[in-house]
Amino acid sequence: MTQVLYTRLHYEELPAIAEPRLPTNFAYLEITRSGFRWIIPYCLICRLRHLHGGGGPADDPRQFLNHRAAYCTSRGYFLRDGSPAVTADLVYHAQARRRVV
Ligand SMILES: [Zn+2]
Predict the structure, then answer these.
(1) Ion ligand 1 residue ranges (Cβ < 5 Å)
(2) 84 CA → ligand 1 middle, Å
(3) In the beta sheet, which residues pair with residue 40?
(4) Cα–ligand 1 centroid distance for 67 (angstroms)
(5) Digit-coded pLDDT (tens) for 22-64
(6) pTM summary value
(7) How far is the CA of 70 from the centre of ligand 1 (A)?
(8) Phi–psi pair at 79, nearest 5 degrees
């Protein structure tokens, strides 16, 4: 049963794009020296780890979710926040740190 859960691809509807169904990967936010990045610990397509840019320190990294290009599939995939509460916390603290400096 666990095996089935880990190998099943999730799909997301994309209303504005001609090909409406793309695989979905869950990503987790990380703060870097130059801003943010999204980490996919386990790609459901190729089973590898992927990194995606999440913008600079003044950006909201959640704007960099949704449809992203990918090396492992020509159509790209849909990036979803795997932990929205942790993301909100990290963004809040990153902004607070910028206000102090
Ligand atoms: Zn992949």
Answers:
(1) 43, 45-46, 72
(2) 22
(3) 50
(4) 14
(5) 889 999 999 999 999 999 999 999 999 999 999 998 999 999 9
(6) 0.76
(7) 7
(8) -95, 125
